[in-house]
Each structure stands twice: as structure tokens, then as C-alpha cells.
Amino acid sequence: MEGLERLADSIDFIEKNLESNLSIEEAATIACMSKFHYQRMFSMLTGVTVADYIRRRRLTLAAQALTHSNSKVIDIALRFGYETPESFSKAFRKIHGINPSAVRQDSHQLKAFPKLFFQIQLKGDVEMDYRIVEKDAFQVIGKGIRTSIVNGQNHREIPVFWDESNRNGFVDELEKDCGSMGVIGACMEFDATQEKLSYYICAEKNRQETPADWEEKEIPAATWAVFESVGAMPDAIPQTWDRVFSEWFPSTGYEHAGGTELEVYSTKGDTTAEDYRCEIWIPIVKK
């Protein structure tokens, strides 16, 4: 559980630097992770992004400062990293529902987002089956969308994308001529700065001509940790993702290599059955 202890240290670092020029890269270094892996791990474990957590904590403390001090709004805005009163007021209203200047005028309800704590637990009651696979680069063809991880937007838009692709016959077309892996859901082209990613429903290229309205992408060569997910969709696979990040990564000598993640769906079997099997592929490196 050393990994979770390092994550807890990074939270302490964030808390001590909420009133300074806080760097996510520094927090990631304290957690002994790349910035990408740190952001991904943080989001999977807590349900919020690092940037959202920092924003919420700063605005929680800013509300307390407005309530219990005589400091000017502009001074408090600068203290918590906002360059203008306008940007501070906009962020403050979004969280607390009122303008900063109104806090001292009357009694208002304010939001409080407490400091996060990682509770280290020894689970181990359910085994996690996985295998390590070395795979050369390969081509996939399919269709994709660009989405954001802010406020869980990707968790809403990707299921809609799957529903549309099943209804319009696109997935059926993929299944006719897909490679040995099956139908693939690929998260790729991550932009940590803008917190965006691309998601493709695709398959290994197994035909000479790519349909005009499809795209062709390359999945880079990688060492993959492959996890089996058993259960009815769509609930089973998110549970496996949670366990990978909350149990497997913190207790092994691996970290996320960054880059493309795959969900591999078998074309055989009923996806609503309790014994339906699919896989999660994550690129890894040894620490």
C-alpha cells in the first residue's frame, strides 16, 4: 500500500500550497508518478480531477477568509490564485451560488469541500486475474468522438456514443470483419492540460480499404497489463477499472505508461449475461 501512502503525501503537499503557485507536476513527483498517471489515479480513486480538487479546496478556504477576515475581495482572490476579481467571482458563484461580496452582507449557506484522506485498507478478499502482454504496434479502424473528463463528461458521452453505434449498425459492421481481439473501445490522444481525450469504437484493421467515413489509427507497441472483467454490461467494466486503480496499481511495482487504454469486447456471448467476459488493456512500465 506504499502507493496510497505516497498519494496521501501529495494531498498534504497540495494542502500546504493552496495559497501559492501550486504545481500538479510537483504533487505527482511527491507521489512518485508521472503527471499523467497521477492525474488518472487521482481521478479514479476520488471521482474528481486534481484541478477540480484544488479549485474546490481554494474556494472553500476563500469563503472562510471572507467570513472571518476584513481582507478585500481582490486580496483574497490573489491569495488563492485568481488574477482578477472577475475570474474569482465567477468561480466563487459556481461553487457557492453567491458573489464573494455578498458573503459579509447577510447569512448565507456556503459549500465546504473537506480535505481528502486516503484510507488504506487491505482488501485481498477477491483475486484479480491479469496477465502481462507484449504487443507490437497495430492499426485499428473505426469512429471516434472527442470528449472531456471535466465533471465526468466522458462518462456521459461515451455510453451515448456506444448506444448510437449499436443502433445505427456501425458495431455490427465492425464485427463482420474485425481482427482476433474483437470490438475495441480505445481511450487515446489524452490532453492533460485541457483534460480531454478521444474515444474510438474500433477493431484491428483486417481489410484493404477503410470506409470513407471511418478513421484509421495506430496503437503503439507497448507492454500491457490485461485484466478480465466478468459480469453484465455496462456495470461490470467500471467496477474492474476501479479495482485496477485502487488495488492493483498501489500494490504492484508498475505504473501507467501513459497513452492509449483499451476495452476489448468479445463478439461472442450476451453482454447482459452475468458471465459475459471482456478485457481492459492498460500500457504499463516498471517503476
UniProtKB/TrEMBL annotation:
In what residue span(s) does the HTH araC/xylS-type domain sit? 8-106
Would the keyword Protein transport be found if you checked this record's keyword annotation? no
Q: Which residues form a coiled coil?
A: none
Entry's SUPFAM superfamilies? Homeodomain-like, Probable bacterial effector-binding domain
A molecular function annotated in GO for this UniProt entry is:
DNA-binding transcription factor activity
Q: What is this protein called in UniProt? A: AraC family transcriptional regulator
UniProt-listed InterPro entries: AraC_E-bd, Cass2, Homeodomain-like_sf, HTH_AraC, HTH_AraC-typ_CS, MarA-like, Reg_factor_effector_dom_sf, Tscrpt_reg_AraC-type_HTH
Q: Does the keyword DNA-binding apply?
A: yes
Output the superkingdom of the source species. Bacteria
Question: What SMART domains does the database record attribute to this sequence?
Answer: AraC_E_bind, HTH_ARAC
Enumerate the UniProt keywords alphabetically: DNA-binding, Transcription, Transcription regulation
